[in-house]
Amino acid sequence: MAEKKKGTRRANGESAIYFGADGRWHARVPMGYKDNGEPYRRHLTRKTRDDLVAEVKKLEKQRDGGSAQQPGKAWTVEKWLQHWVENIAKPTVSENTYDGYEVAVRVHLVSGVGKHRLDRLQPEHLESLYRRMQANGERKAGTAHQAHRTAFGEAVRRGYAAKNAAALAKPPRMEEDESEVEPYSVEEVQCLLLEANKRRNSARWMLALALGLRQGETLGLRWSDVDLANEYLKLRRNRLPPRYEHGCPEASPCGRKAGYCPAKVQVRRETKNTKSRAGRRAVPLPGPLVAMLRAHRETQERERKAAGDLWIESDYVFTKPLGGPLSPNTDYHDWKRLLEDAGVRDGRLHDARHTAATVLMLLGVPARVIDQIMGWEPGTSASMRARYLHVPDAMLKDVARKIAEAIWGSSETPAVDKNQDNGV
User: Bridge-partner residues for 29, per DSSP?
Assistant: First the structure.
């Protein structure tokens, strides 16, 4: 970067430093090429040569490391997030992940920090946003941080910002709801089984309570995945929540939400393949569950014949009364009614998965087998077991009894000498 004499040719990629007629030092730093192929150089100016050389070295380091801002108009946070969620994230992530990112961007991030320039956003701006969100009782701060982190990381990789402000910001502390989960007891499961046997798709609930299948896995299950002769099923796909658009003419709109439009059009695929290798798994079927599925298939065949031409043909194991896949929303409300009718305490549908994992632990099933049945990745299985395997009070009491027998020779509470207790 030494100052060149007049007529001396610089090497390719070398910065030009010169003293200008305005009494200041100037530099032209090659930064690459514009979209149209023209060379792009960044202009810097300082009062002293030493200050300028320091800035040139800093910019050259950013350029060589790929973190320097690229030529063109600077992005605002709003424009970048909208571009990222629609053109970068949407084609590469699952529909559910995209939905979470889209809401975080549209509802929270754009309104909170959208006016800032992307390359000038500071971690403190984001931390202030997260605090405001949590102060308003919004539990989406964690999702907002995740979207920020991912979007800004991509901006840094593309040279639109020198640093990932979200990676530097302290993320919001998320309350762990999982610690409050209380799995259903064996008695509660039996009550649910008795009530489920009175309604359609009874086997659907036992797949959740006995084997811990996720909602999407159960509703996406097809008869081609079920081998009743060998008593196992294969999980390959997940049922996605449906999404609709209006099908009514623009000239005479129905005035309803898209999901209630008489001419609504389904715009989302019904299922997607499981995203991980662990999710694609074979699960053994207990004998009673095999019998339930056999009876369910016979019932479904009778429903098909009774419906005639009205039947919507599909290979799904669990369907609506006239065929076709069940909606996750309908399935959720069916679960709530099942709990109420069975006289069992209210809980999330996902609590059934916690119940199944805990029962497997109580039965002494090896951890590796539990991971296989539950579909947990090897790298995360330990943390997943910590979240899903709950130690019931009865097990703790049994451990206390064994400790008493080992140390004191008896599990009964010894009598207390009152004189000794009073210090006599």
Answer: 42
pTM of structure: 0.65
The pLDDT of residue 2 is above 50 = no
Is there a contact between 307 and 323 (Cβ–Cβ < 8 Å)?
A: yes
Amino acid at 152: F
Tens digits of per-residue pLDDT, 324-370?
Answer: 899 899 999 999 999 999 999 999 999 999 988 888 888 888 888 88
Start-to-end Cα distance in the chain? 91
Query: Would you say 145 and 130 are in contact if contact means Cβ atoms under 8 Å apart?
Result: yes
Nearest-angstrom CA–CA distance, 298 and 37: 68
Nearest to 289, CA basis, from 185, 192, 214, 209:
209
What is the rounded CA–CA span in Å between residue 165 and residue 161?
9
- Residue type at position 386: A
CA distance 161 to 170: 19
How long a stretch of residues is the chain? Answer: 424
Phi, psi of 321 (to 5 degrees): -55, -25
Q: What is the DSSP string of 310-352?
A: G-B---BSSB-TTBSBPPHHHHHHHHHHHHHHHT-----TTHH
